[in-house]
Design brief:
The protein is mainly α. It contains 18 helices and no strands.
């Protein structure tokens, strides 16, 4: 899944007006993901609520309502007077970028709806042990994204338009695929595995169960959107807006490969000891962090980065140190998701929400302070991300130990 970002960045870097399009797509995606954020945790909820038919039905109703509402919210941001407040006012985006960003947002309006739809069926498949089906749908998404990007590159099309089309049609293709596979494998008609009275059985119960999870992701991704505002106002704001999404997209290629440890923990918590599960999460994180460290710190890293973002010397000089700073991010993401998995499996969703508040506050505060002390925007953002994740993990660990004792 994460390969879509570097493919998009590489394509934009080799199309005309690369810096402008990289910056515009980075801002547009930050806004789109913020609108998507409340329904990101549908995967976790679907996995956790799969044991009873009533819970599954109620969650599907919730998924349709919430995902549709988020797409409507994204549509509203494309209106000129709304974007003037959100983009130019809150995020500090220059007027020269506004038109390109709004055009990209208009293309990806269906993104949140498709994400919610997809994640509901992914959760059912994971709970049923059909992880191969999830991977197959992900490959289809990658092929669609790659095909659109290749076509856009061949036609020398507008980079922002190509990126938007690949983003939305890739996830729609994945949603259709995962739905087909879930129905084909009988996952949608699973018999009731066990009656769990503590699980929500109706729409109202799902809202109560899900609210802390949705709020957690909205807070987290809202903070990342706000981080773009700090980057835009840094001493090198114009180039930092291009450097930060380019570098972060490469970091996420590896870091996001650790996120599924959470689903493994939610599904297997009752059959595998916590010690084994946390050891697994740490080992996955260490391996992925070492991979990123080798990529960013080896002698060939500059060549690899230049292939990734083009031959813009100033952009390369800002991306490389960000990769080095963020080498620990895969380990941190793995630990974060593992601890979230323990708490979600126990129904302690408010603890996850509280940890997100801690992480977001530290992230934004650290990034702002680093920027004010003269660090360039991309490095300030990287420092904020690392420190925010460390503090969030600390709070999650504390909450997990407290709930385990009790």
């Amino acid at each position: 899944m994460a390969l879509g970002d570097p493919l998009t960045t590489t394509t934009l870097a080799h199309l005309p007006d690369a810096r402008t399009n990289l910056a515009a797509v980075g801002v547009a995606k930050a806004i789109a993901i913020f609108c998507e954020s409340p329904i990101i945790m549908l995967l976790h909820a679907s996995n956790a609520l799969a044991p009873t038919q009533a819970s599954r039905r109620a969650l599907w109703q919730f998924a349709l309502i919430a995902s549709g509402a988020m797409s409507l919210l994204l549509a509203l941001t494309t209106l000129p007077f709304v974007f003037e407040i959100v983009g130019e006012g809150w995020l500090g985006v220059s007027q020269s970028l506004s038109g390109t960003i709004r055009s990209t947002l208009s293309i990806v309006i269906l993104w949140p709806f498709a994400i919610g739809w997809r994640r509901y069926f992914q959760g059912l498949l994971i709970h049923d042990g059909q992880s191969n089906a999830v991977a197959q749908a992900g490959i289809i998404r990658l092929l669609v994204v790659g095909g659109i990007l290749a076509g856009g590159f061949t036609l020398r099309a507008n980079g922002a338009v190509v990126a938007g089309m690949s983003l939305v049609w890739g996830v729609i293709a994945e949603a259709i695929s995962v739905t087909y596979l879930a129905r084909k494998l009988g996952t949608t008609t699973l018999p009731e595995i066990e009656f769990s009275p503590e699980l929500p059985q109706d729409l109202a119960g799902v809202w109560k169960f899900y609210a802390p999870l949705g709020g957690t992701m909205m807070l987290g991704w809202g903070a990342r959107a706000a981080l773009v505002g700090i980057v835009a106002r840094s001493n090198d704001g114009s180039i930092a807006l291009a450097a930060w999404p380019a570098a972060w997209g490469l970091v996420l290629v590896i870091a996001n490969s650790t996120r599924m440890v959470q689903q493994i923990i939610i599904r297997n918590r009752k059959s595998i000891s916590d010690r084994v599960l946390i050891t697994f999460a740490i080992s996955v994180g260490i391996i992925c962090s070492l991979i990123l460290l080798v990529i960013s710190g080896s002698p060939i890293s500059e060549v690899a980065i230049s292939y990734f973002i083009g031959n813009d010397r100033a952009l390369i000089d800002r991306v490389r140190p960000v990769l080095l700073i963020c080498a620990a991010m895969p380990l941190l993401v793995s630990l974060q998701n593992a601890l979230q998995g323990f708490l979600v499996s126990e129904g302690h969703t408010w603890s996850v929400n509280q940890a997100a508040w801690v992480g977001a506050t530290v992230m934004l505060g650290s990034a702002y302070l680093a920027s004010q002390l003269g660090q360039n925007g991309a490095i300030a953002a990287a420092i904020g991300m690392i420190l925010g994740n460390v503090m969030e993990i600390g709070y999650l660990f504390y909450s997990w130990r407290i709930t385990s004792v009790n």
